[in-house]
Amino acid sequence: MTTFHKRTPSPVLAAALTASIAVGTATAALAAPQAVSPAAPPATAEAAAKAPPVPLLWKVSDDDNSLYLLGSFHLLLPGDYPLSRDVDMAFADAEKLVFEMAPDELASPQLAIQMAQAAMRADGSTLDQQLGPELAAKLASWGQASAAQLAATGMTVEVLQRFEPWFVGMMVTITQMMGLGFDPALGLDAHMGGLAHQAQKPATGLETGAQQIAFLDGMDAGEQLQMLEQALDQAEAGADQTLALHAAWRAGDVEAILAGTVAELRRDFPELYRAINVERNNAWLPKLEARLREDGDDDTLVVVGAMHLLGEDGVVEKLRAKGYAVERVCSACAAP
């Protein structure tokens, strides 16, 4: 069995992957979503009592076109709606939307089949045989404690034995978040995709589902086991750190997210950080610049995981370095 340096249980790896790469892909494997996500959750007294989340929203412009860049949290709570008027205005101004993955593909039942096929163990072994006694015992303990939540996804610990560690790690994280009330159907991507459908605005993706699945399935054995172990440690540690990350997103607190999730992921898992953040951001840049260079004055709203926008490796600073005008759109930031 591969051994790892033990760390304080942290949501950094699982949360960064969950918030960055394929929550939609993973949750598609739980049950095929509706063809069109609802544009907004039902109004509740709790939602009405809360101020809207402070958006991680920037506007990038050249002479005639603009990109609005909106940092997403892929599973949200009912109380996270309604959104800020800044987001409403950006959506109203944009003629097109771009996501990590196109909403139509994300809603396809075929995506779940592709993911399950990629994640299925092909050599006849069980997951426990790969994990070794200590990590297998940790997974069994989690499965016993989370049996009800796991059953709600259509999975059991016995069924998870048929899959690769990367898939099981994501299932652990998603099951925990759903147990806390977070819902992928309320995620910002699903919400904005639903609005785009209702408004008949074109919505495309920067990547395909096949590309995202290939990345996850292409992680080496050590990275996959790290991902699963971190997810189990986070689940054992409880809700506090997950809720703290969500609170930082709600507050639009760039520094808190950078100092926590981004800095720890870059320090503890540099190769994984480069693959899931830096390389993907670099691959997206030409596609985003092409939007700015389009003829006419069509504006585009881009909705991607928040980590992709922040810090020196983020899309915002990379576009600023290329000479585009960049401004944060945040009415609440200027409030007393």
Automatic annotation (TrEMBL):
It holds the Pfam family TraB_PrgY_gumN. InterPro entries: TraB/PrgY/GumN_fam, YbaP-like. Residues 1-31 form the signal peptide. The keyword Cytoplasm does not apply. Keywords: Signal. This is TraB/GumN family protein. It comes from Luteimonas padinae. The lineage of its organism: Bacteria, Pseudomonadati, Pseudomonadota, Gammaproteobacteria, Lysobacterales.
